[in-house]
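Here is the promised in-class demo. Please do not try to memorize the tokens; focus on the logic of going from shape to residues.
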């Protein structure tokens, strides 16, 4: 897997899978920490006994937003770094869908397909990734989304052909 690319290489990757992250274990400690950080203590996330008895999941599940937030670490784990990048900005998401709950103890990984890349202004490149978070041994993914990011760079590094 390529670990570093140039700004001039990015557009050639449109339509290609550009990263597949390592597996990340979503354990109860992670779920509890996220619950504390977001003040979302719904029993399906933080009470294993009650979740096993009263929910259809057989135990606790990760918050959907916890699963979504793991994209950041997955991105750093597998996407090639752009040499000229001075700053990365999370611009937002289009069409986030939570498909399958992530059970406590499950392993997940991110799959990234670069669907769009366009230069904006003198020193910005907007990228859109079709992202999927897969759950180990599950047919359906945990989530799918379009993730939009901005790569900022020094305008002097802008490729001549754009």
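The designed amino acids, position by position:
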């Amino acid at each position: 897997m390529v670990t570093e690319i140039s700004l001039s290489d990015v557009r050639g990757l449109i339509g290609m899978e550009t990263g597949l992250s390592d597996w990340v274990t979503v354990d109860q400690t992670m779920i509890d920490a996220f619950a504390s950080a977001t003040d979302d203590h719904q029993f399906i996330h933080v009470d294993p006994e009650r979740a096993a008895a009263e929910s259809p999941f057989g135990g606790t599940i990760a918050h959907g937003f916890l699963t979504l937030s793991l994209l950041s670490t997955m991105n750093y784990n597998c996407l090639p770094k752009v040499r000229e990048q001075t700053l990365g900005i999370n611009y937002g998401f289009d069409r986030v869908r939570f498909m399958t709950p992530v059970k406590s103890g499950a392993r997940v990984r991110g799959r990234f397909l670069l669907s769009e890349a366009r230069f904006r202004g003198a020193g910005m490149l907007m990228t859109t990734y079709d992202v999927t978070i897969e759950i180990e041994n599950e047919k359906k993914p945990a989530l799918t989304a379009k993730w939009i990011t901005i790569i900022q760079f020094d305008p002097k590094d802008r490729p001549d052909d754009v």
